[in-house]
Amino acid sequence: MEPFVLDASVTLPRCLDDEANAYTEAILDWCAAGTNAFVASVWPLEITNILIQAQRRGRVDEQRIDQFMEVLLHLPIHIEPLSAEQSLREIRKLATAHGLTSYDAAYLAVALQRNLPLATQDSDLRRAALAAGVRLVEP
User: Fold this and answer.
1) CA-CA distance, 77 to 86, in Å (whole number)?
2) CA triplet 44, 116, 137: central angle to 5 degrees?
């Protein structure tokens, strides 16, 4: 499998069992097998924030989160830095042009910069990726 861009919507179901499906499991299995994934610099904060909220709502306990974090830290996931200028200009333009949040636009920017396919379950981001000429990862 070629490297790809990974977003939080595909990452988190491995920890939040009620969201897991064949697509999310296949993507993270590829990573576990050694396929490189690239993420926007917002990814660790997005993952952490969603897990904090899930724990507060009783969807997941701290032990499960700790186990999941250990798994993530051992996967070939590479964080792509975005400069302040990219964040303030390029990401804003992508978000505006495609009706995305700035967070989702950051994943699209990484896919465009690296010319890599994008793994996402987010319907708006999938639509934007196709409109921008970015391939989608389909297992």
Assistant:
1) 21
2) 85
Q: Cβ(12)–Cβ(44) under 8 Å? A: no
Whether the per-residue pLDDT at 139 is higher than 80: the answer is no
Question: Is 40 strand, coil or helix?
Answer: strand
pTM above 0.90, yes or no: yes
Q: What is the residue-wise DSSP string for 75-137?
A: S-EEEE---HHIIIIIHHHHHHHHT--HHHHHHHHHHHHHT--EE---HHHHHHHHHTT--B-
- To which H or E segment does residue 63 belong? helix 62-73
How do residues 111-133 score in pLDDT, each as one tens digit? 999 999 999 999 999 999 999 99
The domains of the chain are located at 4-131
Sheet holding 4-6, edge to edge: 77-80, 37-40, 4-6, 118-119
Q: Is the pLDDT of residue 21 over 80?
A: yes
Comparing C-alpha atoms, which of 49, 59, 38 is closest to residue 114?
Answer: 38
| CATH topology (fold) of 4-131 | Rossmann fold (3.40.50)
